[in-house]
Amino acid sequence: MDAFFASVELLRYPQLKGLPVVIGGGRRKADDLLLQRHADVPLGQIPVSAFPLLRDYAGRGVITTATYPARQFGVGSAMGMMKAAKLCPQAIVLPVDFDEVRRYSRLFKSTIAEIAPVIEDRGVDEVYIDFTEVPGGQREGGRALARLIQRAIHQNTGLTCSIGVAPNKLIAKMASEFNKPNGITILYGQDVQEKIWPLPVRKINGIGPKAEIRLAKLHLHTIGDIAAQEPQWLVDNFGKSYGAWMHEAAWGRDDRPVVTESEPVSMSRETTFDRDLHAVRDKAELGAIFTDLCVQVAQDLRRKGYVGKTIGIKLRYDDFRIATRDQTIDHFTADGATIRKIAGQCLKRVDLARKLRLLGVRVGKLARADSAQAQPPAASWPAPQAAAHRVEEPVPGTLDLF
DNA sequence: TCTGGGGTCCTAGGACCC
DNA sequence: TCTGGGGTCCTAGGACCC
To answer: Of A153, A156, A174, nearest to A165 (Cα)?
Structure first.
């Protein structure tokens, strides 16, 4: 989907079309004020001059999405708000509306599913589609079906997307970026040399900032540079698995199937504080946030019907170092108090002298709540009363951080 | 006034078991 | 005078993606 989060907002506020708009940060006073002051007019009639600007933004956070006009100023995803404000102070800034984004996400995916049912979910705004078996899927190399999908999505949501068609997921993903927004790109296996090799290594899905730096030190900058290396040389420099994969990827080879169903591995909640907090000096505040995160994870688990048995914490220090601790317990749970208790024990095992900027709680080793695995083991005969009716011990109301 | 939140997968060492 | 060889699970960190 093209500039998905921003495009969703533009559906509500069409008056912002063509303007630099960025989405990011949490809901702020300015956003509430905007709605309060214009409670009597339709959203589409709120004057452009009433919207909060990036220059007035104060706080932490990153840009989630920038509209194409904003991108012209060099503003882009994952950029810090403060840096973005310097590049484009006149941009309008809006918070992410997750409910609305999820609603449109479901809508565009169900629209595709009616046309081509073999879909792999890749997050809120992206999917892989295997349309090998879709009638007419091979017409014009797939372009006809891609056009049909684009039109259907636009009809049902008012949103545009870009589609890449290729023999595998790796190349299709790269192709989808060739012609944005609202574009279609068809790539064949024989196009790799001409169309893919000149691209920078970062364009490969799986080569990130760290690998890019390591490759640059070896004077490898383009995908073609990687393709020209002996596989063994790549293995020697990047390890057996990653090195071999890199070579395959550079040659456009990828045999991963489109995976239509998957079970979640973990669920987590984390939050970056408005200001860095200290475990002792800000104990009350931190404790409240901590409990809240545990309760939210527990709610997420229950809402989605899962239980887990590995409970962990994550924290980010003021210097951005990250520490994680986790502990596996002997039974599955989705109980907030249990999660709070175990996570609290994990917290005792990390250095709390430094100030923290982020705290997170995670539950892993998930099972469906209704699965046999998730059930407590049957009590052996004679069943001890306590085991048969075991109740997780409650955590006292005053939750101690230490 | 740098740098979100929710994920997956991989690696590597140690415990533990057969 | 040496101390095997799997296999699995747990834990911590890190790269990467959307």
So the answer is: A174
The pLDDT of A50-77, averaged and rounded, is 94
Tens-digit pLDDT profile for residues A381-395 = 554 444 444 444 444
Q: Which has the closest alpha carbon to A90: A10, A20, A15?
A: A20
Q: Is the CB of A361 under 7 A from strand B?
A: no
A310 touches strand B (CB under 7 A): no
Q: Is the CB of A80 under 7 A from strand B?
A: yes
Closest nt to A62 (CA→C1')? B4
The overall pTM is greater than 0.90:
yes
Q: Which nucleotides of B are covered by protein (CB under 7 A)?
A: 1-12
Architecture of domain A4-96: 3-Layer(aba) Sandwich (3.40)
> What's the confidence (pLDDT) of residue A388?
41
For chain A, where do the domains classified as CATH 3.40.1170.60 start and end?
4-96
Q: The domain A99-191: what is its CATH number?
A: 3.30.70.270
Top-level CATH class of A196-250?
A: mainly alpha
| Cα–Cα distance measured from residue A25 to residue A95, given in angstroms and rounded to the nearest whole number | 6
User: Percent of chain A beyond pLDDT 70?
Assistant: 94
A134-144 pLDDT tens trace: 999 999 999 99
Structure tokens at A112: 């595709």
Is the CB of A271 less than 7 A from some atom of nucleic acid strand B?
A: yes
What residues does CATH 3.30.1490.100 cover in chain A? Answer: 266-374
Closest nucleotide to residue A208 (Cα to C1')? C16
Q: Which helix (H) or strand (E) holds A327?
A: strand A322-333
